[in-house]
Specification:
Layout (H helix, E strand, L loop, with lengths): L1 H20 L10 H7 L1 H17 L3 H21 L15 E8 L14 H9 L3 E5 L17 H7 L2 E3 L6 E4 L3 E4 L12 E7 L6 E7 L7 H8 L7 H31 L5 E6 L7 H7 L4 E2 H5 L17 E6 L3 E7 L10 E6 L1
Parallel strand pairs: 1-2, 7-8
Antiparallel strand pairs: 1-12, 2-4, 3-4, 5-6, 6-7, 8-10, 9-10, 11-12
Length: 351
């Protein structure tokens, strides 16, 4: 039996390390590591289950190998499931700034039930200093939508500084800002958008980058692979479809992430990057945007695993708040709120 457990431990340890560090491999060169990186939460659960089984049968040598792989994987695992036991404390006299990011899925404008938007209601109730939205409608201002109109007066009062026209990302701010036009790709036909603003925020000027990287364009038939894996009909074809779209999506994300990284490299001072990355912590996209200088508000202040996408049984964290500069994250939370297929992230910073 010990030989079986030893073999299992080798396979599990290799799979865990491959998934944990797969995000370091450029998917334009080799896509498989990126697929493994996406599966890291599942691989980790398998590793923990295997570890429990080894402990039950007292296979300690095999267990040591799995424990070692978990420890080596921790730099990536902490991005997915941080365990912040002591929350950062605010310093007296320092300024605090709250930010919120949410993919609002066009405020469900085609729901046609006459109800006000739950997502906008949530945003207004949070009263954050700076709000960035994604999928706020591409072709015309979201203020024209029926679910939004009942709250326009409150919106205009709370956020006198706003920008959202013919693109899908926007900003709501309590403070004046200047929109910049970076010399990089900021929009394309694949649904990739980036906007940059310099906000006159408390504690000094702050550059805010709102990102919405392209989605993987899953169809309803594709998502059946995840929703009903026990249905054999055309399973192989659907799996190939999903794998193909992931491959294309990962490759598109490389150049999009590089464009954001170029903006960051050209940005002095304090900066926050927020939005829908459509990719997970530890992925090549995430690592490219973060570089060596960006910090993750959730990884620094959160506790336990979380997810921000909630449709098709695909529970993954693809929305992020990243920052750098003379500022410190005091908290970051994910709220189960709104009527979108994304949940919002709210962070508070000290400056």
């Amino acid at each position: 039996m010990k030989h079986i457990f030893r073999f299992i431990s080798i396979i599990v340890a290799f799979a865990l390390l491959f998934a944990a560090y797969g995000g370091r491999v450029d998917p334009t060169i080799w896509t498989l590591p990126s697929l493994a990186s996406l599966a890291l939460p599942v691989v980790t659960l398998v590793a923990l289950a295997a570890l429990a089984l080894m402990a039950l049968f007292k296979q300690w040598r095999a267990a040591v190998l799995v424990v070692g792989a978990l420890m080596l994987s921790w730099p990536t695992l902490r991005l997915i499931s941080p365990f912040t036991l002591i929350q950062p404390t605010a310093e007296e006299g320092k300024t605090q700034l709250s930010v919120l990011t949410m993919n609002v899925t066009e405020f469900n404008w085609n729901r046609n039930d006459g109800k006000p938007s739950e997502s906008l209601r949530y945003i207004l109730d949070q009263n954050a200093d700076i709000v960035v939205i994604q999928e706020g409608l591409v072709y015309f201002p979201f203020e024209q939508l029926a679910p939004v109109k009942p709250m326009l007066e409150e919106l205009y009062k709370k956020y006198p500084y706003r920008k959202k026209h013919f693109y899908d990302v926007g900003i709501l701010s309590k403070y004046p800002f200047t929109e910049l036009t970076p010399p990089v790709l900021t929009q394309d036909t694949l649904g990739y958008f980036i906007k940059v603003w310099d906000v006159e925020a408390p504690g000094g000027d702050l550059r805010v980058i709102n990102m919405h990287l392209s989605s993987l364009r899953f169809t309803h038939n594709d998502t059946k692979v995840i929703e009903s894996m026990n249905v054999p009909s055309d399973r192989k074809g659907r799996i190939k479809s999903v794998a193909s779209k992931l491959d294309v999506g990962f490759r598109n994300h490389v150049r999009q992430a590089q464009a954001i990284r170029q903006v960051l490299d050209d940005t002095p001072g304090d900066v926050i990057v927020m939005g829908d990355m459509n990719d997970t912590p530890g992925s090549f996209t995430y690592r490219t945007v973060c570089g060596d200088d960006m910090r993750d508000a959730w990884a620094e202040t959160g506790f336990g695993p979380t997810y921000t996408f909630n449709a098709h049984h695909m529970y993954v964290k693809i929305d992020h708040i990243l920052y750098r500069g003379d500022m410190k994250a005091l908290s970051c939370r994910r709220d189960k709120a709104g009527d979108s297929d994304h949940y919002p992230l709210v962070a508070v910073f000290e400056r």
